[in-house]
Each structure stands twice: as C-alpha cells, then as structure tokens.
Amino acid sequence: MRRLAVLALVLPALAGAGCGGGKDSSGPLDEGLRYLPADAPFAVSIDTDVDGGQYKAAGTIAGKFPFGRAELRRRLEGLFQRGDVDFEEDVKPLLGNPFVVGAVSARSFSRRGESNDFVGAIKTKDGDKLDELVKKDKADQKGEKNGAKLYEDSGGDSFAVKDDVLIVAGSRRLLEEALDRRDGGDTLDEDRFDAALSRLPKEALVRAYFNVKALVDADRRGRQASRIKWVGALRTLGLTASAADDEISVDFNLKTDADGLSERDLPIATGAQASAVVQRPGELGLGLRDPSHLVDFALDAAGAVEGPSVEVAKRQVEQRLGIDIEDDVSNQLTGDASMTATPSGKLGVRAELKDPAAFKRTLAKIAGALPRLAAGLGAGPVELSKPKRGSGLYALAGPERRRVYFGVLGAVLVISNDPADASRLAREKPKPVEGAKGALVLRADAEKLATAILAQLSSQLGPLGGLGGQLFTGPLGDLTGGVTSSTGGMKGSLRLTFH
Questions:
Q1: CA-to-CA distance for 235 and 267, rounded, in angstroms?
Q2: CA-CA distance, 465 to 440, in Å (whole number)?
Q3: Could you tell me the residue ranges of all domains in the chain?
Q4: Which of 271, 280, 286, 396 has the fewest Cβ atoms within 10 Å of its own Cβ atom?
Q5: Which residues of 20-58 are buried (b: 16+ CB within 10 A; e: fewer)?
Q6: Residue 465 carries which DSSP code?
C-alpha cells in the first residue's frame, strides 16, 4: 500500500501522464496536515490531480523530449502493476487531493539514518475504491485505532484507512501516534502551512513548508550558528515547484523575525536592483551586487560565533599588514561581482573596485602575507609567485600544486584557476539578466551548459556526449534566477524555460 505514497512522491518528477490541478478547498490539505505535529520540521503537499493544469503543463514539457509523455506514463503506471491492481481502474480514481508527507521530529530529522521518521496522508476521492484497493493489495488487517483500520502489506509496511483517508508512516508506532494526534489539537494545519508560503504560486506540483527555527534549534551546530543575528531570526521557509507549458519554476520565501534586525545583519544587500552577470555559452554565471555587504556579514558572523578572538585577530592582521580591512578591502567592493563556472571545473570571479590603484597597493600587502597566514591556519605549505612579464597576476600554489591566479587588471579584481581566463574576465562586460531581481542573480544557457556537461562526461556516457545528448538538451532554454533580501526575509525564484 505504500505504493500510493510512492505515487504521490514520484508524480511531479514523472509528469508524463499529461495533465493538472487546482487547489481544492482547504479541507483535504488540512486533513493531511493534521496527522503531523504543530512543530513538524517540514511538510510537503504534492498535487495528485493528474487531470489538471499542472500535469498538463508538465506533460507538454515532457513531450518536447524524445522519450515523450507515453514513455513516462508507461513507467508511472508500471509502479502499480502489481497483482490485480490497475492504475486507471484502481489508483487514479483515488487521486485529486493533495498528498501530504512530513517529518514528525526536528531532532531525529537532523540526525542521519532517520529517514523513516515520516507520516503521510491523503484524503482520497473515493472511499469505496480505497477499500477495494486494500483488498486487491491483499493487505492484512492488524486491528483498529481511533476509528481507523490498521493494515500491514506483504512487504511488512504498516498503513491505516480512516473513512476515505489513507495514512502511511515509517513505522507502526509512528502510525498510531499520528492517529492519536489527529484527534487532538496540537497539530500542523493549513493556516500555518499557507502562512509560510505567502506570495508564492498557489497552483504548483509541489508546495513545501519548513520550520527552519525548529531545525536550527534541534542541532548543536545550529544552536551555535543562531548566535548570528540573522540565523537566530530565521523562522519558516516556503517553497513551490510549478510548471507552465514552456517553463518550470522553483520559488521560495524564507521568513525572518524582523524585530531587532538591521540591513547590516543580512547576508546580501537589500533591494530589487539586480547585479549584472558575465554571460558565456556553456557556463554558469552568478552575479552579486555590493559584495562588501557579504564581507561585513562574514566578519560579524564569525565574531558572533567565535567571540572576541575574531576582533583581536582582525586587529592583529591589520597592524601586521598596515591596512584597515573595512576601509581598504570591504569599502572597495561596493560595485558588482560576477562569477563564472564551467563543467570542467574552471572558476573565475571579477569584482568592480572603487579605487583600483589603491586596492592594487593593498593587494600587494595581503598577497605577501598569504604563505605565512596559510601556515598559521594549518593549510600546509603554499607558494606565492608575484606578477611578472606585465601579467599583473599573482599565483598561489597549494600542497597539491593547484594554482589560483589573482590581481587587479584595469578597474577590476580578478580571481581564477586559469590565468588566461582571469585576463579574459577583466575585459568582459557583465550584462543584466532579463527579469531577474535582487542582489544575487543567476543565468545560464541551459542547452549549452547541459551539452558541455555531457561532453565532459562523454567517456562514461558514450553516444550521449554527441548527437544522442543533443536530443535531450535541445529543448532546454534559459536558466535564470534572483534573490531579494529584507529584514523580513529572502524571496527568490529559479526558472528554466523550454523551446
């Protein structure tokens, strides 16, 4: 019977049945949520209306690929062809309402090896059909609990049926606890779930709720990190994954308690203005507006976690090098920064400088101290090569002889693991990303990026690295994203378009 839980979990990924959904009345979602405790660390609501708009859109996208909707549908139905059970006749009539699954304990969820600490429920569309499915599945009844019939299937998995509701869990104990919880008052509910997902798409294949505060508080390292103001202010995360005929999007809303937070306490700068990005075929580009904000946040966060020793170490470094980290480093990085990455592992960063000549002098002081600093941190021996032949680039080689090149070229700071790419980055002009908002922005030509990844893996994938791979990458369009920040939280989206 847990196959029905598997169905709900795999439907969004295998959406070739070709169809979608609207949100039902609050009843079915609320019913599923109330088998979880009020402090549940997460809960996921999965659309099972395979005849609705979301699945139609997902099916349209699937049809752009060579395996198509028919193959996906065949694979999906194959999950349920067991004995006398038939997808169309026995399973599909049950679907339409959200399937809800979540963890019951933040503490156990934060530990490895507790993947079975879950409860799931769906209010089916047809209680009589549900009873018929249980009989066809040849599950054995193992008693009753709070008006629900308890069953065990041939694989030893426990589940329960209460009227037209199917409840599954990771163990018999968790199942019975969920049934007790449903009749009590201290449960997760639709109001709390929807509050975390405010201003996110209502029509989505997947809607997820995370109790971030509970997850942070359940882990020792999380409690230590909560000394950082922004981490301590984290409350909930809402996330959705939705489909349109030519687009898949993931949107999130990370909420914080704004009381006592200032803009300096945030990891990235506030506002909707987007950073420009270096855009190259076959590469992933990231943009960050005002990287000085991130530098200041990192220093403040380290001080909050480690205490006064960070400030003492900072002053010692400043005195030894004859610099002021805030004036000579952080305040220089108030423009845009852009990072590029390739499937082969080539990385590069360029950052605009307020006063390139002054930063060049500062960098000379910092570079000369890096080998000694690395040794003090236990990073092993590193070697520094100073700029020569007019390259303007320092080279830092670690114990494995991997080199990082950095320097001030023109009006920008460049860092790369390839010297030619560092010089190229200095000459390139970052461009705005259409539709992107916020200090953190992402952009890639998904088709060219995927083709480059397949080419990199061609020795393992054979023909997929060539023409075969093109059949799978051809429908891909642009991958774009952006994150906006405020004292009330972060909002962002990631969108993949299709041709």
A1: 16
A2: 32
A3: 2-213
A4: 271
A5: bbebeeeebbbbbbbbbbbbbbbbbbbbbbbebbbbbbb
A6: G
